Amino acid sequence: TGFFLMTLATMMVPFQVIMVPLFLVVFKMGMYDSYWGLIIPRVAVAGSIFMMRAAFSGIPKELAEAARIDGLSEMGIFWKIMLPQVKSAVITLGILSVNGSWNDLLWPMIITSKTEMRTLANGLALFVGQNTIEYGAAFAGAFLSLIPMFVLYIVGQKYFVEGMASTGLKG
């Protein structure tokens, strides 16, 4: 489809090219200095759309047709039939999105002015000064920042592996 191909074409555009227009959109929507401004642009990226399309394409259309014949509404079909079928892909996408946001340095610096709104990567960058680097504190902070992502992956490992396999993504 044309929309899908156009969405995939956006994967070829580096973030630095869309950074200023994205900032203007987020600012005009009133999401500057908010968690929504940090989260929403990260969720609607082309890779996420590609992954979810691949997951939904693998569901037989007969499941939805049978549910329609049984009288289930379109929202009911989505929530009760389709979403449970792609649960692994949704969890995988969640893990990848959280990991990407957790490690993001540039976007939080652009979209936030308050230091308490910034991500951990921005805090770790403060250990690097103009003339000195506090290696001990930086490495300790980097190690501590790894722990939540490690725990998230361990907890969601089963779904992560299933989601990668079901959508055909190569790791």
Kindly state the number of beta strands: 0
CATH architecture: Orthogonal Bundle
Q: From the helix content, strand content and strand pairing, which structural class follows?
A: mainly alpha
Q: What count of helical segments does DSSP give?
A: 11
Helix content: over 70%
CATH-assigned homologous superfamily? MetI-like
The biggest beta sheet is recorded as: none
Count of all domains: 1
Rg over CA atoms, rounded to whole Å, is 20 Å
Give the H and E element order. Answer: HHHHHHHHHHH
> Roughly what is the average pLDDT, rounded to an integer?
86
Beta content comes to: under 5%
What's the shape? Answer: globular
**Distance between the terminal alpha carbons, to the nearest Å?**
26 Å
Taking pLDDT < 50 over at least 5 consecutive residues as the criterion, the unreliable ranges are none
